[in-house]
Automatic annotation (TrEMBL):
Organism: Kribbella yunnanensis
Keywords: Kinase, Membrane, Phosphoprotein, Transferase, Transmembrane, Transmembrane helix, Two-component regulatory system
Predominant subcellular localization, coarse grouping: membrane
Subcellular location: Cell membrane
Domain of life assignment: Bacteria
GO molecular function, one term: kinase activity
Transmembrane segments: 22-43, 189-211
Protein name: histidine kinase
EC code: 2.7.13.3
Reactions that this protein is recorded to catalyse: ATP + protein L-histidine = ADP + protein N-phospho-L-histidine
Ranges for domain HAMP: 211-263
Positions of the Histidine kinase domain: 271-489
Pfam families: HAMP (PF00672), HATPase_c (PF02518), HisKA (PF00512)
Amino acid sequence: MVANTQSWWQEKLHKLSLHSRVTLLAAVAVGLAVAFVSVAAYLTVRQQMYQNLDDSLTDRASQVAKRRVLTQQVALEGIPPEALGLSDTLLGVYTADGQRIGSTKSPLPPMEEPELEVAQSQNQITQRTVGDAATGQHYRVVAVPAQFCPQETIRDECEPDGPGVWEPAALVVAQSLKPIDHTLHNMGIVLWAVGLLGVIGAAIAGNAIAVSGLRPLARLSGAAEHVARTAELRPIPVDGSDEISRLAVSFNSMLAALARSQDRQRRLIGDAGHELRTPLTSIRTNLDLLAQADKRGGLRPEDRQQLLDDVRAQMDELTNLIGDLTELARDTPQIRNAELIELSNVVEDALIKVRRRAPNLEWDVSIEPFPVWGDERLLGRAVTNLLDNAAKYSVPEDAPTDGRIVGLVTVRLQDGVLTVTDSGPGIADADLPHVFERFYRSSEARSRPGSGLGLAIVKHAAEQHGGMIYARNAPGAGAQFTLWLPHAATQTR
């Protein structure tokens, strides 16, 4: 039952707006605080008033019992409490043998078992509250030990200091609690009124705070809705340094990152469309030529084979281009499923592949073990691209195809630094800042196969693994590319 009630309340609260919840929270918090303070004040005042009344009644009753004037039956029955100025007080004596004696002109105070024990023991004082069902009032009753002189005793023997016969009894004084109840009732009304005003004031203040404090959040929400509706990634103005302002700053950072991502996507799509158009056009042209030739009787076998080889080459180029585009389209800020990799093994595997495709090159290789955390597939593709690039430019365009050695590629892996140096013509100074850009190809490279994405993938892999890549022209050689990756011991998984 309790769980169902809590679920119901949680469901209702979740349906409220944040503005309503802040207002409700302020009202409830102040209401609880006022309630606790009011209850504490009420109980404290009530306890103090009862304590003061008890002290007063006990002191007066003790004084009366000590003087032994009102504990004489003649005096007690003949003098009503009103004559002594005690209009709201009842006075009586409860003897040890159970007799209740008081004024004949006023009712007796409540005298029961606790007061009888005082009369019989003569060594205790009782204080209690008793309700009167007949009058609807209740009294604070105090009983103190006393000595009682019966009416039949000779008057001289009932003198306070005389040697008369005094019987053990209890002097009982009952004070009406009506004045205290009236005071506490008025106090309760005042506390309720103050509490209600406090809750109303807290609700008003909470509403004002919610309106003021949530204004930046409303502006942020409006900006998010505007972005969702119009796809305009304009940042919102930020004022202050509170939590909502920091949220707005984070939102602006997210918008900026989204804008950069959209810009990269647009450029990638635009460049991809341009680059894909070239091999597709060439393939279509060759297929059209083949179809037209078949209508005229067909081509010579060698011409037909050359045309088909050209189509296959264009298909291979298109396949590689799509693979490169797929890799770059991931555009993730860092690798997610990193594993411990031996970089030297990655380089050796890449060398085996590239050597098979470039048999007329000499390879000068020196590799040292170096562990890294990363994606083995992505690192393998990056290293293969570096080696393919070096192999491509180390072979002259007019090189013989009889298997003779025509170039040299130097590969070094030391302390996490992979250096690949080719024997080609090098890179022009104007092209050096752009070699890692997507689809960038220098004028010398346009005559060679490639999509212009290989080195962009190398840079992408280096950045994802917390490393870096840079290019320069090596003295006495061709282009030199240096890839640096951090040691596995310095990386976090």
